[in-house]
Input
Amino acid sequence: MTRLLVVGSGAREHALAWKLRQSPRVSALFVAPGNGGTPDIAENVAVPANDVSGLLRAAQDRHVDLVVVGPEEPLALGLADAFRAANIACVGPTRAAARIEASKGFAKGLMERARIPTARSRTFDDFAEAKGYVEAQPLPVVVKADGLAAGKGVAVCPSREEAVAFLHEVMVHRAFGGAGERVVVEECLTGTEASAFAFTDGRHLLLTVPACDYKRVFDGDRGPNTGGMGAYSPPEFLTRRDEEEVRTRVLEPAVRQMAAEGTPFQGFLYAGLMVGPTGFKVLEFNCRLGDPETQVVLPRLRSDLLDLLEAIAEGNVARAKADWDPQPCVGVVVAAPGYPGDYPKGLPIAGLEDIARDVLVFHAGTRRDERGQVLTNGGRVLTVVALGDTMEQARRKVYDNVACIAFPGMHYRRDIALRAIQATARPRSL
Ligand code: AMP
Ligand code: GLY
Output
């Protein structure tokens, strides 16, 4: 029997805890810090996700055997190193391996060394040099802060003025602090984005089903970027052959290269892909699962997630197997008024008791008051998820149930998975 700790407070971590709760071998399940939904299936531990020493103490006090980490910050801060040094198994990369997400310059260098297809780019430490380069690039041009910037460190710039202004913000004003010591300037790719994930022990990989995330806040991919407003799985435009190529040309070479360079990557490896008419390129690597992609990937997993986590932590991925449900899955994020800008907190959420039994509601920015009433407590509030015999059915189920939920000013995209239903086969050559 295993005592487990899930680190994080989003809908991704609620989905991880929900899936782990189904394992007959889980004897205790903690989420730190969790949210207003996780106490239904686990025990919340009031330690923030980036307090590594606090989490270690909490895990030791509760005799935790295995920790699984949702967000990138604790990994970049060395959570996995600290837990392993204290003999607690951890699913998640070391601080050194988390650089694959925490430094975009490092990730670009790795891709170059491993010959992984990606956008042409250059990395700069010096503002004047970066400015000179940007001014000579075709438009649009993409400027990225090197370090972690909560999803705000990337600008796709339609003009040179905007590119230089963003560069100035990042490198001179240090809008993202130390994350802006270096920048990556990159060619702009076009196509449709997809997310691929591997469970890896540092040598062998097991791919999950892929998913698509919607980053912009409004329908039709308009408005500012968010953490993700919805997702579906599988992406209709990725063929089996594409998936095989993502394995052999992207994920396997990345894991091999990390090991060869002395920083083996163990945990969840996430490749963000731009898929165009002539193939795909890697936009970024992340050292964790995606949010909201996890909320549509895990409901399709038929196998015991604990078996897979143990295989990752114990170096047994070569012998592990994952069985996936062929049913498509759709997830819609319900957000607070104003998100991704400033938003109020503490709005009472009505209608959760009216959700159909075969629909999942993963909480993110929620908490409960003394009487048990669920209140909003963040920007992304809930992810509502359903499987269906078809994408259309899954989508209808989700939106019928989103309509039950109400809080003042709530908003959500109405076009999640719509393109998968409308898609007509288009010729592709790779
Ligand atoms: P990243 O954190 O590098 O994935 O960038 C965040 C988002 O910016 C991506 O999901 C894309 O929507 C966009 N993006 C990043 N790099 C590029 C690129 N080279 N071309 C076009 N869009 C990009
Ligand atoms: N959904 C995008 C991410 O998790 O980074």
Notes: Residues 126-181 form a domain with the Dna Ligase; domain 1 fold (CATH 3.30.1490).
